[in-house]
């Protein structure tokens, strides 16, 4: 079944209820390291751009005076408000990278968790150059699994199972293009060309319910894209996979979470 027009124009609308329940959290150790590398102080401001339900924004709230969490999807902002609305210095704002302007003020750090791939990346970096203070940084967060680790053997089957249900046009249209360049290539040609990376590797225990939520939080397999019947079939197949691999209902997984930190040359010690 072809996805609805709304599913195509708002790819994360129906993912919002599943995001926090399914996505692995950002490790505190990695957040602290990025805050240190960016020189964050209690006087600084942070922007979480393409924030989803504001997981990164909440993680950085303890290191800054104010955190702005910006996302174009109202359902994501509602999920973020429900989860983190009690954090006094976190403010959720509807908008996208197209809305970056001096009205937002300036920031020491701009963090993004996988959202950068959905943007016009060179234009976004040009806009951020005017908003990030001297010595400030951009941090691009991602997470994944090393298939070679024994604990992650099941993830190959999980990904294959999930992708069997993907609609034909489910991929990010920008990332799926023939001329796609990795983030590092884009950053090296920008004002933020001094790059370094940090990673944290953690073993976790994950149940079937979380893995169902994780699948339904992906842009290619949201409930809107799949439809109710296909989403239910996907959930059943994931539950069967977990039961086959871990009869006690809890899988081990080793999650590698990375941060690619980009700064202007010569400003690291500002």
Order of helices and strands: HHHEHEHEEHEHHEHHHE
Backbone structural class: alpha/beta
User: Beta-strand level of the residues, as a percent range?
Assistant: 15-25%
Give the radius of gyration.
19 Å
Give the CATH H-level superfamily. Vaccinia Virus protein VP39
Could you describe the 3D structure shown?
- The protein is an alpha/beta fold and 270 residues long.
- Helices cover 36% and strands 24% of the residues.
- It is built from eleven helices and seven strands.
- The protein has helices spanning 5-9, 16-22, 28-37, 55-60, 74-84, 121-129, 153-164, 183-188, 208-216, 223-226, 228-245; strands at 45-49, 66-71, 90-94, 107-113, 132-145, 194-207, 250-263.
- Strands 3-2-1-4-5-7-6 form a seven-stranded mixed sheet.
- Helix 6 (121-129) links the parallel strand 4 and strand 5.
- The radius of gyration is 19 Å and the shape is globular.
- The chain starts with a helix and ends in a 7-residue tail after the last strand.
């Amino acid at each position: 079944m072809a996805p609805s027009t709304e599913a195509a124009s708002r790819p994360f609308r129906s993912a919002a209820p599943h995001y926090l329940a399914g996505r692995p959290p950002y490790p505190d150790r990695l957040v602290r390291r990025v805050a240190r590398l960016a020189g964050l102080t209690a006087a600084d401001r942070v922007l979480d751009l393409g924030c989803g339900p504001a997981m990164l924004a909440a993680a950085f709230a303890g290191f800054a005076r104010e955190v702005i969490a910006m996302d174009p999807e109202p359902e994501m902002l509602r999920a973020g408000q429900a989860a983190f609305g009690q954090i006094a210095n976190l403010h959720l704002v509807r908008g996208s990278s197209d809305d970056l302007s001096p009205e937002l003020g300036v920031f020491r750090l701009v963090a993004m968790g996988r959202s950068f791939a959905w943007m016009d990346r060179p234009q976004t970096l040009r806009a951020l150059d005017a908003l990030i203070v001297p010595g400030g940084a951009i941090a691009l967060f991602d997470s994944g699994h090393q298939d070679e680790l024994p604990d992650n053997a099941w993830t190959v089957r999980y990904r294959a199972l999930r992708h069997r249900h993907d609609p034909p046009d489910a991929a990010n249209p920008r990332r799926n293009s023939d001329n796609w360049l990795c983030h590092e290539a884009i950053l090296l040609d920008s004002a933020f060309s001094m790059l370094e990376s940090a990673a944290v590797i953690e073993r976790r225990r994950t149940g079937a319910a979380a893995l169902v939520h994780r699948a339904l939080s992906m842009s290619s397999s949201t409930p809107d894209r799949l439809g109710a019947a296909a989403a239910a079939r996907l959930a059943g197949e994931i539950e069967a996979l977990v039961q086959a691999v871990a009869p006690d209902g809890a899988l081990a997984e080793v999650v590698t979470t990375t941060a690619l930190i980009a700064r202007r040359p010569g400003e690291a010690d500002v």
